[in-house]
Structure formats: structure tokens, C-alpha cells
């Protein structure tokens, strides 16, 4: 087989065989196929697309390019949730203990944050003592006993995707549905998921800016999942404004605890219930989404979700008593209110910009080596659609530096107050096929 023939075949709009796709991925991973040929093929795929069989073959070839996590010693259907990324996205912190409380095993491999979107591990490390440096054996044991554990990234997962994603980034080929869908799905499958629930974000804070693009990506991923034997569902959710009220590591843990107590923000709670219901159904613990939602409601009302969170933290050496007393979480030195400059209705809170403001306070990393400040961040008091009077507080800034004029200016620029406006739709669509 020759790479140049594969490139020409795709350039001319023909479908590649599984063998050709495997030849490309294996050769590219081990260095036999150079970047210039790989980028040429990526561009051909960008223009000519791939059919369902090609997408499934590409996904599995990338899965098999490196280690695959074996979770077969964990009882039950391992369901993983993936979000395409957002600002102040506290869902994983709430979902993991919540669905575990109704019996769905959550064996989560997680990463740290980079840029203005936070990482689940960073957030959890706000809890004194908590860590994710556990052995794979311990991880499996904890999930079997307590239904939930989180481990840091281990193994050499999907090296083909790492290499190809880096190449796409500099060759104008990131924005291709077959390439994005196979990239995301390969990582979930290599991490051991039997079933996958996807939260595809749309809006200015998201990778996919329009609902149409988000829907196309969601359909593509759901089809790949189901074609390779992983039950997969997706929702399309809004990421125009930040999710929930808290943005920042410790602040989001506090928000997660409040949500597990049934006192969380409306949008975060609704998103958690929607995604959680899907996880419970694909995890085989309920027959339909209504039954699943009722199970989750009961777990919040009877306190079992919160107790599962406490046990989970303690199992990984964290101070579980934070669930009774959130003031044990790291606190920033200064709390400053950002006041509205005019009266009206909030019509826009640009998620990306608010994420950048939070990073300026020290809540996020600019490079992989940066230290982050777990205590700082933002707490929104108003969301899109809310009325506000001039002089009323829009949000509280938690900082360890006194001088935050640049952060205040950035935030005022990213919040729009007009005469009238409505709250956005949070869940645009549910995609099961
Ligand atoms: N996120 C990924 O993991 N892969 C892509 O290709 C795009 C976004
Ligand atoms: Ca939040």
C-alpha cells in the first residue's frame, strides 16, 4: 500500500477501506508517514468528508494506536460523560456522585484545565487532601465498592489523535466533522467507556457556534459510538453564558455541593438532570428517561447523592466534611462586588470573556506548567434574562490581589444590559440516533 494512492483516492471523493485507514494511522503514529502526507489527507477529508464506515474505522484505528484502559473488572456498564468544553461547567462534579448514588459505576479518568476552561481534577483538589494519584487496582476497587472514583491520566492513550490533532491545528483542518468526531470518540473509548453520553455545547463560549453545527457533530458522534458497539446519546446545550453561577475551582466545588443538596442554580440543575437521566438509561438502571429522572430526584432529596460525594472524597484522602461546611474550602482574601452601570435586562454574558477574566484572577493556566489559585473566581448574581437596577451587584469577584481594575473592565465589557430580553433555551435537543 502507498500513502500517495490513499490521498488521491480521498481527494477524488472515494471511500477508503478499513485497511487503508489502518495503514495511514499506524504509519503516521510510528513515523513512517510524514506530516506533509498526513496533512494532505486531512485536507482531502476536510473537503470530501467520510461515510459512516470510514468514520468508525478511523475512530477504532486511533483507539488501537495506543493503550486501552481495561475496566472489565468493574461490575456493570461503565458510562462516561463528555462535554465539548465550557466555562464554569460544574456538571461532572455533580453528575459523578449523583449517578453513582443510583448505581451507575463512574470510573472517570480526568485531566487538568488549560486556558479558561477548568479541569475536574483541579476543582477537586480544592478539597484538602484529595488526590487522583491512585493505582489502577485501587481505582477499580473503589469503583466497585463506592461506585465512583477519579484517576489522573495514565497510559499512552490515542497517540495517533495527539499527533493528528497537533497537525490539524496548524494546517486549517481542525473544523471537520469526521475528524473532530473520531478524535473525541477515540479518547472516550480508549479510556474504557462501554457507553457514552455527550454534552455538545453551542453558543459563543463553545467550539461549535451554531446549533446546526453542534447538531451535525452530535449526530456524527452518536453514530460512531453506536456503530462500534458503544451505546451513545447526546444533548445540545447552550454555552452562550457561563453555566451555573460559580466560575473558579473551589467556588465550583461549593456550587456542586449546593446542587447535590437540591439548592443549586436552575440551569446547572437542569443540565445535570438531563445528562444524568441519559447516563442512568444507558447504564441500564432505568427503562426510560422519566424513570431515570425520578431516581435522580430521589437521590438528591434523600441525601444519598451528597453522602456518595462525601465517601468519594474520603476514599481519595479528601476532607469529606466540606459537604457539611463549605467554608472549609480555600477562600480568597478579597470579595468585590461588580455593580451594574445602568438599569434594564441582562441580554448577554459572554462566556469566553468571563472565563478569561477568571483566568486573569489566577483560576486558570496559560501554560501547562502554571500554578493555579484554587480560591479565586467569580460568582454571578444575575444571568441572561434577569432584571437589574443600576448600582445592584452583577457578580462577586473573589481575588487575592487588591487591584483588579483590569478584571472589572473586562467583565463590564462582556455583560450587556438592554431594555428587554429573554433567558436563553438551555437544552436545544436530545439526540439518540
Ligand atoms: N476536541 C478534540 O478532542 N478533538 C478535536 O478534533 C476537536 C476538539
Ligand atoms: Ca458553574
UniProtKB/TrEMBL annotation:
Subunit structure: Homodimer.
Documented EC number(s): 2.4.2.2
Classification via SUPFAM superfamilies: Nucleoside phosphorylase/phosphoribosyltransferase catalytic domain (SSF52418), Nucleoside phosphorylase/phosphoribosyltransferase N-terminal domain (SSF47648), Pyrimidine nucleoside phosphorylase C-terminal domain (SSF54680)
Naturally occurring in which organism (per UniProt): Staphylococcus caeli
PANTHER family named in the record: THYMIDINE PHOSPHORYLASE (PTHR10515)
Keyword field: Glycosyltransferase, Metal-binding, Potassium, Transferase
Family that this chain belongs to: Belongs to the thymidine/pyrimidine-nucleoside phosphorylase family.
Lineage: Bacteria, Bacillati, Bacillota, Bacilli, Bacillales
GO MF terms held by the record: 1,4-alpha-oligoglucan phosphorylase activity; metal ion binding; thymidine phosphorylase activity
PROSITE patterns recorded: THYMID_PHOSPHORYLASE (PS00647)
Substrates-to-products reaction catalysed: 2'-deoxyuridine + phosphate = 2-deoxy-alpha-D-ribose 1-phosphate + uracil; uridine + phosphate = alpha-D-ribose 1-phosphate + uracil; thymidine + phosphate = 2-deoxy-alpha-D-ribose 1-phosphate + thymine
Gene3D superfamilies documented for this protein: Nucleoside phosphorylase/phosphoribosyltransferase catalytic domain, Pyrimidine nucleoside phosphorylase-like, C-terminal domain, Transferase, Pyrimidine Nucleoside Phosphorylase, Chain C
UniProt name for this protein: Pyrimidine-nucleoside phosphorylase
Top-level EC class as recorded in UniProt: transferase
Highest taxon of the lineage: Bacteria
Cofactor(s) in the UniProt record: K(+)
Amino acid at each position: 500500500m502507498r500513502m500517495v494512492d490513499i490521498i488521491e483516492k480521498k481527494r477524488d471523493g472515494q471511500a477508503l477501506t478499513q485497511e487503508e485507514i489502518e495503514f495511514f494511522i499506524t504509519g503516521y503514529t510510528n513515523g513512517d508517514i510524514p506530516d506533509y502526507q498526513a496533512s494532505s489527507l486531512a485536507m482531502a477529508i476536510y473537503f470530501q468528508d467520510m461515510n459512516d464506515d470510514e468514520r468508525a474505522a478511523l475512530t477504532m484505528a486511533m483507539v488501537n494506536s495506543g493503550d486501552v484502559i481495561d475496566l472489565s473488572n468493574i461490575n456493570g456498564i461503565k458510562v462516561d460523560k463528555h462535554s465539548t468544553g465550557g466555562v464554569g461547567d460544574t456538571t461532572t462534579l455533580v453528575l459523578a456522585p449523583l449517578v453513582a448514588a443510583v448505581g451507575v459505576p463512574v470510573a472517570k479518568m480526568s485531566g487538568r484545565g488549560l486556558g479558561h476552561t477548568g479541569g475536574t481534577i483541579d476543582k477537586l483538589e480544592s478539597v484538602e487532601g484529595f488526590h487522583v494519584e491512585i493505582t489502577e487496582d485501587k481505582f477499580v476497587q473503589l469503583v466497585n465498592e463506592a461506585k465512583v472514583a477519579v484517576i489522573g491520566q495514565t497510559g499512552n492513550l490515542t497517540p495517533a489523535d495527539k499527533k493528528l490533532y497537533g497537525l490539524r491545528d496548524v494546517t486549517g483542518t481542525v473544523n471537520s466533522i469526521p475528524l473532530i468526531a473520531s478524535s473525541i470518540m477515540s479518547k472516550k473509548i480508549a479510556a474504557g467507556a462501554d457507553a457514552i453520553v455527550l454534552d455538545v455545547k453551542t453558543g459563543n463560549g463553545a467550539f461549535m457556534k451554531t446549533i446546526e453545527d453542534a447538531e451535525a457533530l452530535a449526530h456524527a458522534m452518536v453514530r460512531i459510538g453506536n456503530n462500534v458497539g458503544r451505546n451513545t446519546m447526546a444533548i445540545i446545550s447552550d454555552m452562550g453564558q457561563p453555566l451555573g453561577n460559580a466560575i473558579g475551582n473551589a467556588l465550583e466545588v461549593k456550587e456542586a455541593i449546593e446542587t447535590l443538596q437540591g439548592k443549586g442554580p436552575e440551569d446547572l440543575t437542569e443540565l445535570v438532570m438531563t445528562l444524568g437521566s441519559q447516563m442512568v438509561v444507558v447504564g441500564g438502571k432505568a427503562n426510560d428517561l422519566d424513570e431515570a429522572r425520578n431516581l435522580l430526584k430521589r437521590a438528591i432529596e434523600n441525601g444519598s447523592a451528597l453522602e456518595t460525594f462525601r465517601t468519594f472524597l474520603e476514599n481519595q484522602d479528601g476532607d469529606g466534611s466540606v459537604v457539611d461546611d463549605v467554608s472549609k474550602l480555600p477562600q480568597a482574601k478579597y470579595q468585590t462586588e461588580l455593580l451594574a452601570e445602568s438599569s434594564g435586562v441582562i441580554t448577554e454574558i459572554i462566556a469566553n470573556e468571563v472565563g478569561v477574566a477568571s483566568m486573569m484572577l489566577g483560576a486558570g493556566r496559560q501554560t501547562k506548567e502554571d500554578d493555579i489559585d484554587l480560591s479565586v473566581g467569580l460568582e454571578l448574581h444575575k444571568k441572561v434574562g434577569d432584571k437589574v437596577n443600576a448600582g445592584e451587584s452583577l457578580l462577586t469577584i473573589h481575588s487575592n490581589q487588591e487591584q483588579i481594575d483590569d478584571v472589572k473592565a473586562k467583565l463590564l465589557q462582556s455583560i450587556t444590559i438592554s431594555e428587554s430580553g429573554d433567558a436563553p433555551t438551555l437544552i436545544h435537543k436530545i439526540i439518540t440516533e
